[in-house]
Amino acid sequence: MSNKAIAVWFLLCVLFLIMAVALGIYANVVLNPDLHQYCRSAQHSGETTCRAIIEDDFSGSVLDIYFLAVIVLLMALVCGCITWIGALVRQGRQRQWGWFLGTLTFSGIAILIYLLVVPKTQRIPAPSLDQRLPPTS
């Protein structure tokens, strides 16, 4: 897997992770306070029980948002695994064992540093003329 492909999968993973966190925050901060405020006002006005109000009006939307956040989080996990395995295979093929152990241990931050620091192609010195020509007798 090339550095470009690893970078694309890594960015997808980060994007999905940010989306999942944003959905979770939205469900907790935006929808749940509305739910509790709605429930308190309904109890003061003498309407039905709070549990019935929650089940009828808000629980579907909150649970849908949580379910969507879990699905997006699973997508981030899949992208992260593809990134991790691709980086490990690349580092193993290039015999970069220090990076391999770092990626194996500290996956996310090591992959980010690897993508920023390591050049796209490994520089292999060209063989000298003496090494290419067979010996003459």
Largest sheet: none
Estimate percent helicity: over 70%
End-to-end C-alpha gap:
45 Å
Number of helices: 5
- Give the SSE order as H and E letters: HHHHH
**Segments where pLDDT lies below 50 for 5+ residues?**
none
Strand count: 0
| Tally of separate domains | 1
Return Rg in Å. Answer: 27 Å
Secondary-structure-based class equals mainly alpha
Using the alpha-carbon principal axes, give the shape: rod-shaped
Mean pLDDT: 79
Task: Tell me what portion of residues adopts beta-strand conformation.
Answer: under 5%
Molecular structure report:
This protein is mainly alpha-helical and 137 residues long. It has one domain. It contains five helices and no strands. Helix 1 packs antiparallel against helix 2. The chain is rod-shaped, with a radius of gyration of 27 Å. The two termini are 45 Å apart. The mean pLDDT is 79. Keywords: Membrane, Transmembrane, Transmembrane helix.
Q: TL;DR?
A:
The protein is mostly helical and 137 residues long. The chain has 5 helices and no strands.
What's the arrangement of secondary structure elements?
Layout: H1 3-44, H2 50-93, H3 97-105, H4 107-117, H5 129-132
Helix pairs in contact: 1-2, 2-3, 3-4
Descriptive labels:
137 residues; mainly alpha; 5 helices; 0% strand; rod-shaped
